[in-house]
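Saturday, quiet lab. Running sequence design on the structure tokens for the scaffold JK sent over.
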């Protein structure tokens, strides 16, 4: 009996040894499958992460551009504010000086003789009448035109746009303010913004190797032609870079384009 039991014990041990490698192999296969699943999931996650990162980079670039435009607008507003302060100070100083001169004139007239006072008043009346007569003669004369009309407030061709734009640039170099420049010529800011791209393309593109510049078609409106010039500018990075440089040098107006819908 004891020998039989020992034989059975040995057989059981041998069977256990045989089953252990099989179980170990199954565990290794299962671990390999889990690793492959993790790798596949991580690849998909990395691709999604890269696409999200690229999207965030694009949004960040747009935000940077908006911030740059806001800073530029803020700078222009500050310049306009400083200019208005300077004007108010100069006007206050001028009003004080005129009051002092009128006070001195009143004292001198009181000390003079009645006859000389009468002659002074008579001469002053004549001086006051002269501008009225000159203005009436200007109205009667058909040859003379008002200053605003001679400047060309309404434009009908790209050449007119460039001519008006160059005058605005000369004024802008003195004021360094778009609103102040527009007020000097009694023009609305949106009017200039609607055609500024035409002048920018034609002025910056003159004499350069940027391809054939846009030409307005027959019966084409300036608003439609402005959109053509904007598309041409967007398609020419070199020309766009030159426009930006000329703006920084105050050779072109720093104004945001606006188009009619």
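Result came back. Writing it out in full:
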């Amino acid at each position: 009996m004891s020998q039989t039991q020992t034989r059975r014990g040995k057989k059981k041990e041998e069977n256990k040894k045989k089953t252990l490698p099989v179980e170990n192999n199954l565990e290794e296969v299962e671990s390999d499958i889990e690793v492959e699943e993790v790798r596949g999931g991580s690849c998909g996650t990395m691709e999604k992460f890269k696409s999200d990162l690229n999207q965030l980079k694009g949004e960040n670039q747009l935000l940077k551009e908006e911030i740059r435009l806001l800073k530029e607008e803020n700078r222009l507003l500050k310049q306009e504010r400083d200019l208005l302060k300077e004007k108010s100070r100069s006007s206050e100083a001028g009003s004080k000086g005129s009051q002092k001169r009128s006070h001195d004139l009143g004292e001198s007239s009181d000390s003079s003789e009645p006859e000389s006072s009468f002659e002074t008043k008579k001469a002053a009346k004549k001086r006051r009448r002269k501008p009225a007569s000159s203005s009436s003669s200007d109205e009667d004369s058909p040859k003379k035109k008002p200053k605003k009309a001679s400047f060309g407030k309404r434009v009908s061709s790209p050449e007119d746009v460039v001519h008006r734009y160059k005058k605005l640039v000369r004024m802008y170099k003195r004021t360094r303010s778009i609103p102040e420049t527009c007020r000097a010529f009694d023009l609305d800011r949106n009017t200039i913004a609607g055609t500024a791209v035409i002048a920018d393309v034609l002025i910056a593109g003159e004499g350069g190797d940027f391809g054939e510049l846009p030409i307005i078609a027959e019966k084409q409106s300036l608003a439609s032609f402005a959109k053509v010039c904007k598309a041409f500018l967007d398609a020419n990075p070199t020309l766009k870079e030159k426009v930006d440089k000329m703006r920084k040098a105050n050779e072109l107006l720093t104004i945001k384009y606006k188009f009619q819908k």
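Notes for JK: The helical segments are 2-111, 114-140, 147-151, 158-175, 178-184, 189-204, 222-234, 237-248. The longest helix spans residues 2-111. Ask whether to fix the surface positions before the next round.
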